[in-house]
Amino acid sequence: MTPRGAPDGPSPSAVPIPSLVASLAASLLPARRLPRHGNPLRMLLSPAPWRATGYLAGYVVAGSAFFAVATAAVLVGIVFSQLTVTLALTVGSVWVVRCCAQVERGRALLIDVPIPYAYQEVTEAGFVGHLKARCTDPVFYRDCCYLILLHPFLLLLDALTLAIWLPLLAGVSLPLWFWAVDCRQADGSFADGVRLGRSDGTGPGIWIDTWPAALIASAAFLVLAMYASYAVVAAARLHLTVAHTLLRPPPDPLAEAKHVLAAPGPLSPTPPRPVTGPTAHGGHRT
User: Where in the numbering of this chain does the Putative sensor domain appear (predicted)?
Assistant: First the structure.
């Protein structure tokens, strides 16, 4: 029996509140080529973490190059935009940024379909009209935001993910190469094997110099790599979500209204139906 004055529904503390991790995972873009498996071993052996690794490693190299090129192009365009003689150079700077953004849109093919794009068309004739259309296009500023402003954050995300993922893969393959490495001891001498820890031998660590030790370490790294594959795929999805948010065409605010008008209904243009019933000639059919 409910006490008098008590609320009828469940208390706010009893209502399940989704966690921050679950909300973030639900907001990530579900890439078509990055399926998530419930079995960690199946996840590790699937193509998803390896595609994500290629996407993240490609941005560390290509994204850094695009950052340098796009930044130089924008600075050159700003410096020479006031000179009439160098208007062609300003348009060229815009095209350089666009080419870099197009490559980034195409790189999404590693884990998903290429990102669509829609640049503003030139409506005014002449070179000045062409320059105005290119420099006032909102898509150009979105490209600059992705290539220049967000590059440090995306680079940090990709580099940290790879810094955790790649050493685990190297540890899994430890039995294949531990015997070919010479590691320095604390007294300055060298011995065959690998030390997991401080390489100079002065700090805590594990010495891997036999096959049983290498196999046990490889099994431990394999378990860690199976669960780390989820983090690699999540980082690639987060990166792809940011790329889609900035590099794809902005949403049309009238898209829903256009869909309603185009759908069949009372507002759709339909041909008039023939009138059935008595004709105007004396009320009799002919």
Answer: 55-247
